[in-house]
Design goal:
The complex is a heterodimer.
Chain A (H helix, E strand, L loop, with lengths): L1 E10 L2 E10 L5 E5 L6 H9 L6 E6 L2 E2 L5 H8 L2 E4 L11 H12 L6 H7 L15 H13 L5 E5 L7 H17 L3 E6 L8 E4 L7
Helix pairs in contact in A: 3-5
Chain B lengths: L4 H36 L3 E5 L5 H12 L4 E7 L1 H11 L15 E6 L6 H12 L4 E5 L2 H53 L4 H37 L7 H34 L4
Antiparallel strand pairs in B: 1-3, 1-4, 2-3
The chains are: A alpha/beta, B alpha+beta.
């Protein structure tokens, strides 16, 4: 589903990823562990094509990202749920509209917004605007956006950064449920291991494990 | 969707420019029409030889009336002319054995054709008629009016050009701010699989809608001001038809230009600022 083959990425003279190779396990929760500035966010961005590898191959759904033109890349993104490190809710529209607008603009017929809000316990936030929400609440809405469309793959960049411990546990339980019942695959970039049960890749010192 | 500050700024920019430009251009058009009217009221006199009879004069009058350049033409009867002069200067009519006045025609030309060269060409053309003695028009007055009109046109063109340039620059600047303000949202949409064309549609709607609302709002205000002015405050005594026609022309031009500016600025900014992320 996601495979990195000897991926190298540098920004100018700074080498961020040096020969990274790994393959995630489908229908399961995978985690990429690494300290700050180890390139975890770059790995996530490489998957959805916001960043291009300097060399090597990034394969998503058996497609080499580098072989896609921009339209192809945009279409591929329609099958990936993304949880951004900086949340990225659209301003000026409500929490619920943040999800339904994607359905409207991309023509997705499946939009389980109520179910996602219910699972995450944020139904009461659905008509609030992002600026009326705390960072933790915004994070939960961002997570709801990534699971409301039943994407086969969800990638998350530090999704628990702004969440309290109880919410973090609840979200992990939701991920486990979706992985088990709906065969969704998760790839979470995080500094500390979330669970020993998850398939783990380490990019500390540019080594995977 | 909540309306943000940049949309409100766009609305007020559209209102400010549309309103001020429509009023200003309305006044310029009115002044232009008034000057054209002045010009077209400059008479040209065609004096016939004493040998010419009324039939000759009427033939010439008919030919003039069929000319597309002519606004109005009428015969000055030599008896009436004689009578007027005698009365004006209190002259004893009995001292004249005969009427010394010739027949003449007073012609007013349409303002758009009226200039010195045109009148000189008419003069030389009419001089070919052997029944016509002379063609006269107040050359100095025409020169003065033409000069004043030319200065006014140049001044109004420069003022309008500068103001439209400022309008375009302001539109582009505000739409640029608007794009920068929304860039993160647009990039997020791209990451979530929304095509750039759809994003352009959202951007276009967000920039052109406040401009349209601003234009409609300004049109209503201008119509209100026009009717209030005509009803209660007609201080400049400008002809109602001239003012209405000038405002109509000005509003139509400004509706079109405001649309063109808003659309051009939107496309231009999206083209130079939007990235394939």
């Amino acid at each position: 589903m996601v495979e990195f083959i000897d991926v190298f990425k540098s920004f100018g003279t700074a080498i961020v990823i040096d020969g990274l190779s790994f393959k995630i396990v489908p229908d399961a929760i995978n985690q990429i562990l690494g300290p700050q500035s180890s390139g975890k966010s770059t790995v996530i961005k490489l998957i959805y094509g916001a960043v291009k590898p300097t060399s090597g191959t990034v394969r998503v759904f058996d497609t080499d990202i580098a072989s896609l033109n921009y339209s192809g890349l945009v279409l591929l993104r329609r099958y990936i749920g993304i949880i951004f490190e900086d949340v990225r809710l659209l301003r000026g529209i409500t929490a619920r509209e943040n999800i339904t607008i994607i359905s409207r603009l991309t023509g997705k017929s499946v939009c389980l917004v109520d179910e996602a809000f219910d699972m995450l316990g944020i139904t009461k936030l659905s008509n609030k605007y992002p600026k009326e929400l705390s960072l933790g609440e915004q994070s939960l809405v961002g997570i709801a956006r990534s699971i409301a469309f039943n994407f086969p793959l969800v990638i998350a960049d530090e999704p628990f950064r702004y969440l309290a411990a109880n919410n973090k546990k609840m979200v992990l339980d939701v991920f486990r449920y979706l992985s088990k019942k709906r065969k969704m695959t998760f790839l979470i970039a995080t500094q500390n291991s979330l669970s020993d049960d998850f398939n783990t890749f380490r990019i500390d010192n540019n080594e995977t494990g | 969707m909540k309306r943000d500050n940049v949309s409100i700024a766009l609305f007020f920019t559209a209102v400010a420019f549309f309103f001020s430009m429509s009023i200003l251009m309305g006044l310029f058009f009115s002044a232009n029409d008034i000057m054209n009217n002045r010009k077209s009221n400059i008479p040209v006199y065609i004096f016939f030889k004493t040998s010419a009879n009324l039939n000759d004069v009427q033939d010439q009058l008919l030919s003039l009336k069929n000319d597309r350049h002519v606004k109005q033409a009428n015969i000055i009867d030599k008896e009436i002319a004689f009578h007027k002069i005698v009365n004006k200067f209190s002259i004893d009519r009995s001292i004249f054995d005969y009427n010394p006045f010739p027949y003449s025609i007073r012609v007013l030309f349409k303002s758009k054709f009226l200039n010195k060269d045109f009148l000189l060409s008419i003069k030389s053309k009419l001089s070919l008629n052997n029944k016509i003695d002379a063609v006269r028009f107040p050359e100095n007055i025409l020169n003065n009016v033409e000069h004043l009109h030319a200065i006014f046109l140049r001044f109004s063109e420069v003022v309008i050009f500068i103001l439209y340039l400022v309008e375009l620059v302001v539109f582009i600047s505000i739409i640029r701010i608007f794009y920068s303000h929304k860039k993160q949202d647009f990039d997020t949409l791209k990451f979530l699989g929304v095509k750039r064309l759809r994003i352009f549609g959202i951007f276009f709607k967000n920039t052109v809608t406040p401009a349209i609302i601003g234009i409609i709002f300004s049109l209503i205000i201008i119509a209100g001001i026009y009717f209030a002015y005509m009803q209660y405050a007609d201080v400049f005594q400008i002809d109602k038809h001239i003012l209405l026609s000038a405002l109509k022309k000005s509003c139509i031009i400004n509706v079109l230009l405001s649309f063109v500016f808003a659309i051009f600025a939107t496309i231009f900014i999206f083209f130079i600022k939007d990235e394939k992320v």
